[in-house]
User: Fold these one by one.
Assistant:
Number 1:
Amino acid sequence: MSSGLTGPPAPDPFWNPLPYSRMRENPERLAWTVLLASFAVFLVLSISVPLTLRYWVEHATVRQNAVLDPTQGTILLYPPRSLEPIAISELRDQVAEGSIVEAGEGPTQATVRLISEGENDFALGSLQLFSGTRLRLDRMRSPLFELSNAPYQALLTVERGQLRVFTNSGVERPVAVVLVTPHGRIELGVGSYQIAVTAEQTAITVSAGDALLFKENHPALAVSSGLRAWITATAIADQPVVATENLLRNGNFTQEMRDSWESYVIAQNVTPGKVSIMERDGRRVAYFVRQGEDNVPTEVGIRQFIDKEVNVYDRLVLQLDVKLLFQSLSGAGYLSSEYPLRVEVNYTDIYGKQLAWGHGFYYREPENSNWKILNGEKIPPFNWYTYRSPNLMELLKETRPARIDSIRIYASGWNYQSMVSEVFLVAE
């Protein structure tokens, strides 16, 4: 017989007590929590919203178009995201951000105007491109709001070539130009600059203004007016140097001739002239001599191949020391071409034509009054004479040199003895 006892009945859930709440016990704490949270949200919004608006006003930009103006030859323009170029031979005023401008290898020049202020056409920045230059217009911006203190911005990539960069300050704000090359980055201030980018290095010459050069894992290098510096794939210049460059190698003849100069002789069935390197008067000299039968023309000389683009330079000056010892042919011959010593610079002009400029030296007056001296001068014999040419860029401005091809120094005529030393072709 079972007892039928099953334990006390389960409590009725209807009568269960409600969960205990501390907030209900202390409503003031809840009120303070809500109040403090609201105040925190208010502080966050009161600070972040103005800062966000300020950041937007300060940094919001609008895109700018560049103006491409070919001045010589045909320029290739690659619009953004385009693989096919457009040949540009006339001014184009809607060159968009992201475009690539390429100057051909032939005689080519063009100007790219970057940013204009207001409604006028006055460009605050411009670039002059020369043959073989490839330039990408990565970013060209102006602030969206006049209240912004940000500068006008131009970010450009120079893959190769030579160019000049000119920047001005606008009335409203300055221009910040940044050049990126395969070797590093260059920030330009207000001024004018010459940039040359080759496979080996990026070189900058500051004509006016200031520039900062940046290379990863190296300290920044400041370059000011009148100085130049360089960046390579692995290094950056220790410090800027004076903004001149000697285009000649071994102009003082202290190294082996075969590494820089080559000699040649012109003599048909007669005793030829000779050229040798020796020490005289405490210096290394190239000595030209011919002693043989008289009244027969000969020539002996040395030459150096330079192959250097000089579009970006403003000055090009030749300097050398000359000493004349003997000449049997008076003056410079009847064609004014046979000097006991003459120097000749061979160059390609901006039109692609190969030309030459030269200067000769003699000490015996022409015996024939009809023999005129052209591009030469009389100097005292047996003494060193330093010759410094005019600025060849100015002298030859009608056929301005774009590339220096070579230089030769030679003696010609009948019999002669002469020396040359300390030869420089300085570009600035």
Number 2:
Amino acid sequence: MECIVSWAGPPATPGEGSAMSFVAQTGSGHTLVMDGAPDAAKPDNGGANLAPRPMETVLAGAGGCTAYDVVLILKRGRQDVRGCSVKLSAERAEVDPKVFTRINMHFVVTGKGLTSSAVERAIAMSHDKYCSATIMLGKTADITTSFELVAVV
């Protein structure tokens, strides 16, 4: 897996654009833009809030990784899953390197005839065995999970 991340450079006109915008070109051929938070005290050191922060993309990637696993595990178990979303709430350390220290993942899984035990098992399998993103983040963060089941008739 490869990715090239490049600084977009300073804005051509002061006050326009972002001083801390980065563009990632992924190995699969996709582009992702990231930006920093504005810094009123030092505008040249801050972003313009034009795109997600890098750590937000890390959190989103973990959510995508685990949701992918949950859907795949349920489908492979011949469950009639129709939807899956996960809301991630995270806390970070107050000092550098401001790693994630706590992450809660709340899943909402929709389907026909799904059982709580099947969903709970799929989440646990993702969390404990398959999701490389959450397993890596679990080295610094306490990760908890919860879920809701929405039945489709």
Number 3:
Amino acid sequence: MAKKAVTPRMPAAPPSFRILMIASEAQPFSKTGGLADVATALPKALGRLGHDVTLITPRYRGAPDGPVAGTVAVEVAGHRFSARLLEQPIGRGARVLLLDCPDLYDRDGIYYEAGVDYPDNAIRYAFLSAAAIDYAAQQPQPFDIVHTHDWQGGLAPLYARALGPPGTPGTVLTIHNLAYQGIFAKSWVPRLGLRWDDFTIGGFEFFDRLGFLKAGLNFADAITTVSPTYADEIQRPEYGHGLDGVIRSRHDRLTGILNGIDLDEWNPAADPHLPAPFDIDHLPAKAASKRALLERFGIAVTDETLARPIVGMVSRMVDQKGLDLIAAVAGPLASLDATFTIVGTGEPRYQDMWRRLSQWRPDRISAFIGFDEPRAHLVEAGADMFLMPSRFEPCGLNQMYSLRYGTIPIVRAVGGLVDTVRPYNPKNGQGNGFLFSEYEPGVMLRTIAAALAAFPNKKIWTRLQKNGMRANFSWDRSAAEYVKIYTRLRPARTKRRAPASKRVEGR
């Protein structure tokens, strides 16, 4: 008897999500740090995976205009703010809506001016979250997920309650840097439409003040951070910044997902900022970028300077990034047989330190105070080594850029640096960089010296470069991990949700 043919069961199609993302900065519209890169790269990657992503971010001074995709009007702290939402497509399935409210965002700085935070930052970023939720309430097709970032979006999980059951979206908070928490006087609680019932240790009370980030930590359905190691570190007092207990209490909702990098923007084979392309099979062409780097930083191009290793840095000049370690051994560092090219801005004392070093050793040290994207790309491509001696580093992107460009990282073994840089093993040639654990100036200096000692062995150095260039830091890999979280949070939808109030005050 003939067997009945069995039609193979096709695997179920993965779910498709409508995602509302909220971030206080997004490249290329605004940027102070890695959050801006993530805020656009992640939506683009999710869009490539077939999801529909809308990112809402402020339109700061200098950001482009665009077609109006909607308007919002929300009352915050006794004033009714209105804003247009200006659309900017960023890729298949992904778009940015610039929240155009000049009263709040058309300023010289993003978060501060002359080193001082804007006094109305509580209003500015409460409005960002409330306006995003108000926009969501207007849509005929509801969002499945509200995914917000850092303290500036910390109130979004609370305001999302206004969307109300049935069909309330799942809420996700991503921590990019726990050191920045958005702490304000408790008098803001009623002014921002929050409930005194939630002003508790288990809510958003932080030492008798209002904590935006703590609100997100306690009220989001899921919490992510930007590397697996950092997810472990922030549950300990030395890295928890006073919130380690909160995070431990919600560890079952915490996931560390390593950031990716934009492989189109950071591609040495097609980088418009470089004098010549190169890749893993054409490493000698990297030498053209080294020559151009010396020229750009005003260092004489000679056989000697081309042969000498270049150590690059692109960094905020703050203690977190290890600038205090560098300051402690500035003299010995400047005496090493290396050239240093620096791009960054930050605390005046560290800016002045690099200026003084540049004046003292103009043949060996050159610093550009400020941020310049073409220079940053040229440092990544033209340097032989990249220094990141961070006190803590939630993820870090520059070490991944460096690896992709065949530039060997010298990093402290913390956070995402541990998850991406593998220590060089002289016995078997494995690894892709140099790491040190103790946060001590002398230990950092000895690690730099070890890298410089390895540099003349071109066979070993080329192996290190190729080990790094083979690593996969695609955002598609990271985005797939976020989709797993969204899948766990996908709400059951039985009918269209009721519209939310357009009022924050007294909600």
Number 4:
Amino acid sequence: MSRAYIVGGGLSGVAAAVALAGQGRAVTLFEAAGQLGGRCRSYFDATLGATIDNGNHLVLSGNQAVSRYLRTIGAHDALAGPERAEFAFVDIKHGDRWKLAPNDGPLPWWIFSDGRRVPGTKASDYTRLAPLLTAGPKQRISDVILCEGVLWERLIRPLLLAALNTAPEEASAALAGAVLRETLAKGGQAYRPRIAQPSLAAAFVEPAQVHLVARGADIRLGARVRALTLGTNEVVALELPEHTVALSPEDVVVLATPPWVTHDLLPNTTTPNEFRSIVNAHFKIAAPPGAPAMLGLINATAEWLFGFADRISVTVSAADAIVERDREALATTLWGDVAKAYGLSGPLPPWQIVKEKRATFAATPEQAARRPKAATAWRNLVLAGDWTDTGLPATIESALRSGETAAHLARSRTPV
């Protein structure tokens, strides 16, 4: 039987392994770290005395690759969220509070309702977003729509900042259009927010590892592939520090490493080379009773608050301006936003700051143009990763789609 070698155990690599194992392929997965998951990971934090996620990864009810993946690994009930799309916001500067409440269907009659749309906007404001749906790959969002006004500041900018992890004014209009096509354009049924419960690892990683082991997959943690031995048109071996794995003509390799690692292994492959950071803060205090589980902040350093039973978590996207700040100063600033948003008082509770300095590629037109396709010049080598050309920004949905695509290509390139 031919074997699939997966290099990289982030979500894209795990998704490829799951799909290939489901096809009956023998799978070996190499991961340099001591656990699977990559940036989608959870760990026990001694400061908080709790298991926390490295960041707050929001998925949506319409994320089809997420749904397929969770069903396959037996974790279809691992996400929690409201029955209808509803998003609460607070303007920290002015004190205004409101809820965005779209209707389920694709015909957006909610934009005609004062109680459902963003206060201070009118229906025609929303229709002016339509040019994003047909934007070209070289256009920035600011080339296509006016990046100002109430709707921009109170909905579109926060939404796109979270989805693209790049200042929307400089970000790719085509990627923004892809986000809108899969969310606002499909109706509220497609963008009901979903949060992993009780943790990212429990939802996306641990069930997948059990699933793979049950199907005979060989998972090797702490195993770094340091080089690929390349023949004329195929990979002939994988080089690890202690040994070399020779490949048979029927074997296939899925390279699911970060873009900078992929570039080191395949120097002639163009990959994104500019990145944006994310800062997350976790506070050991429960959100007030009745507070929304997710709250968007306007005119604040913090952007989204997530309330859990044992903690409040904060996310700041495209956080390059603050990522180098002192950790305690960051905690103090972000706690100030949390306290105002939730009406809390008292001293700074126990906290933890998690910084991802290269969280995603910069979602600009120039960087998007550097995203490679999954297929490569080598017949038995395919790429996976949320940074490859999936048509979406670097999200969990993008990572899982890339794994599916890689598995499909792997199957078609070599016989089982």
